[in-house]
Every structure is written in C-alpha cells, then in structure tokens.
Design goal:
The protein is of the alpha+beta class. It contains nine helices and 15 strands. It has a five-stranded mixed sheet with strand order 1-7-6-4-5, with helices on both faces. Strands 8-15-14-13 form a four-stranded mixed sheet, sandwiched between helices. A hairpin with a 2-residue loop joins strand 10 and strand 11. The structure holds acetyl coenzyme *A.
Length: 336
C-alpha cells in the first residue's frame, strides 16, 4: 500500500480484461437436447450461442485470466494490488475462490474475497471496491472480477432456462485518486420478497451421523426461474433506477455515450434503451455470442468495447445489473 493518501476522493478506471471458455454451444446444438429451435431462441432472446466450461475452466481459472489481462492493460506491478473482489455465484470453493485467484496472480499484498449477488454481483462488487478505495484505509489499487459458471447449475432439460446461460469472466482494474471520481454515482437495491422468481437453492438430504443425530448433506438444485416475472421485473426496475441516478447526478440521457446493461435478453436491452431514449447504436450488446454469463456480463462487454476502440477515454457509461435476489443496481461511470 505504497503512497497512501487519506484524501482519496474517487476512483479511476485503468484496465479491463475478459475470458470465455473455448467450447461453443449453438442454438441448433441445444435443440438436439431440448424441444426448441434457433429461430425461437434468437427471436425471444437475441442469443445465438454461448460458451460452456470444460475441465480446467472453473471460476478461479476464468477469473484469473480475466484479471491478468486487466492488470496488463493497467500496466501494474502485481505486488501493488491491494484488493481483489470476485463477484460470483458459482465459486469452485464455497469457502471463496478469490484467494486462489490472488495466489495464481502472485498478488501477495492484496486481500481477496468473494461477493455474491447473482447477476448484479459485478456492479455490487465494483461499488464495494470503490468504497474501500475512497474509505481512507490505505487501499489504492483494486481488481474487480465477475466470473460465473452457470452451466454447472442449469437444468439442461428445462428449455425455459437452459437456453439463456453461458460461462465467462471479466475484470476491471480501478485505482484511488485524490483529484476526481470517475464512479460518478451509483445506487443499489434488493427485494427479497420477490426472491422466489429466480433461485439456485440448496438441496439438503438427511443423513445420520450417529443414532439420534442427523445432518443435512450439502448440494444444490438446478436454477429455478420464472422467466416472465424476471422479465417484467427487469423492464420495470432498470429504467427507474437509471433515470433516478441520472437525475440525481444532473445528467440527461443524451450525455450518455454507452448504455451497458446486464446481458440477459436483447428485448430487455431494447426496452430499457427505448424508455431512456438512448439509441440502439449506444447500447452495447454481446449476448448473441455469450448469452447470460451472470456476474461476468458487464465487465465482459466493457472489455470487448474497449479493445474494439468503441469505449474511449472520458466516455460516459450508464450501467445497470439486475437479477436474482431480486437485486438490481446502477452506476454512472466516466471511463479512464
Ligand atoms: N423453445 C421453444 N419454446 C419455448 C422455449 C424454448 N426454449 N421456452 C419456453 N417455450 C415456450 C413455453 O413453453 C410457452 O409455450 P406455451 O405458450 O405453449 O405455454 C411459450 O414458449 C412462451 O413462453 P414464455 O415463458 O411466455 O416465453 P417468453 O417470451 O417470456 O420468453 C424467456 C421466455 C426468454 C425466458 C423470457 O421470459 C426472459 O428472457 N425472461 C428473463 C429471464 C432472465 O433474464 N433471467 C436471468 C436473470 S439474471 C440472473 O440473476 C441469473
């Protein structure tokens, strides 16, 4: 934590990285498994294919590769990283996967931990990490990772949900600054009352340790989703939270260069864009290739846009994540 400055007032964005597994599962291949078609999936979701982890592609591996490319872009000495926050719902170790990413990176001076908020996870992790950087505790450099492997928890016989999800990871490198704050504003919400619309619940079966002492073995049921309710939730709440945030920060939607939404369904992206009067060419979308990669979508789509020279220094990004919990959030960012 060299160069500690207790007047750190904000964060700047220094790098991005991403990783997706090699295996490609196209819509027509899914239709060999469940009763669906490329035409149905494409028209209802915008998705054409998704990446599926194979052996060797767990959350630690994917998160590590995404983090490393973000660190390379930032041009940081790995030993100067203070904080690693991994947003994931599918850690390959329930005790946490972030420390194993720390070890693989050799980020010996960092503290690393997991954060779970499903598809809102990356946004919640970015906001949390920013508070550490601004909090006066000496944290200066952070890597925020979103990585998920939902293919391991999808019911591959449920055509209503298995078509949506894919695996991947993305990461951003952020740094404390005492001159400005490029995380211009943010908001976060949860509503557990509506939590039953989307779950990856534990499934305990009773065993016996000794006579009269039971235990519950740990396992998980596949993803259970009420697609229509999740859809209605997203198209209602996401415009509201973004509109409120823009207003609070004295921005109008015409000042937004890029709308970066959690990549769940192209129809959700279009509907939110329409409501905010943000034209299609400003709405970043890559779900055609990757589907919904949960906590990974936002950094994955940002990284692609930076490397394709679309997002440029000082561009204004309005972003929103939403999903299970139910949870949702928004952030207004200036890139750089
Ligand atoms: N192929 C063919 N037909 C299908 C398929 C499929 N893959 N899936 C459902 N259908 C059928 C249904 O059985 C139904 O048939 P019926 O009319 O004979 O009963 C019909 O298509 C319509 O089904 P709906 O559920 O009404 O379809 P809808 O237009 O709502 O699209 C979808 C379903 C794509 C799941 C949509 O509701 C959606 O995208 N919801 C949001 C889900 C989401 O984003 N979840 C992730 C959130 S992020 C997180 O935290 C993980």
């Amino acid at each position: 934590m060299e160069g500690i400055n207790f007047n750190q007032i904000g964060v700047s964005f220094k790098g991005s990285g991403s990783y997706v597994p090699d295996q490609i599962l196209t819509n027509s291949k899914i239709s060999q498994k469940v009763d669906t078609s490329n035409e149905w999936i494409k028209s209802r979701t915008g998705i054409s294919e998704r990446r599926i982890s194979s052996l060797g592609d767990n959350v630690t591996e994917m998160g590590y590769k995404a983090a490393l490319t973000a660190i390379e872009m930032a041009n940081w000495d790995i030993k100067t990283i203070d904080l690693i926050v991994l947003a994931t719902s599918t850690p390959n170790d329930l005790f946490g996967s972030a420390p194993s990413i720390q070890a693989k990176l050799g980020a010996a001076n960092a503290v690393a931990f997991d954060l779970t908020a499903a598809c809102s996870g990356f946004l919640f992790a970015l906001i949390s990490a920013s508070q550490f950087l601004k909090g006066g505790g000496g944290f200066k450099r952070a890597i925020v990772i979103g990585a998920d492997q939902l293919s391991s928890f999808v019911d591959w016989n449920d055509r209503g949900s298995c078509i949506l999800f894919g695996d991947g990871a993305g990461a951003l490198a952020i740094e404390a600054t005492n001159e400005f704050d490029n995380l211009i504003g943010f908001d976060m919400r949860t509503d557990g009352e509506r939590g039953s619309f989307l779950n990856l619940p534990s499934k305990n079966t009773k065993g016996s340790i000794i006579d009269n002492i039971d235990f519950l073995s740990g396992a998980f049921s596949p993803i259970q989703m009420n697609g229509q309710e999740v859809y209605k939730f997203a198209v209602r709440e996401v415009p509201i939270i973004l509109e409120k945030l823009l207003k609070k920060m004295n921005y109008t939607s015409d000042k937004v260069d890029w709308l970066v939404l959690h990549q769940a369904n192209q129809r959700i992206l279009d509907s939110v864009g329409e409501r905010l009067k943000i034209p299609g060419e400003k709405i970043l979308s890559n779900l055609e290739k990757y589907g919904n990669t949960s906590a990974a979508t936002i950094p994955l789509v940002i990284d692609e846009a930076i490397r394709n020279n679309r997002i440029k220094q000082n561009d204004i990004i309005a972003t929103s994540g939403f999903g299970a919990g139910l949870s949702w959030g928004a952030a207004l960012i200036k890139w750089g």
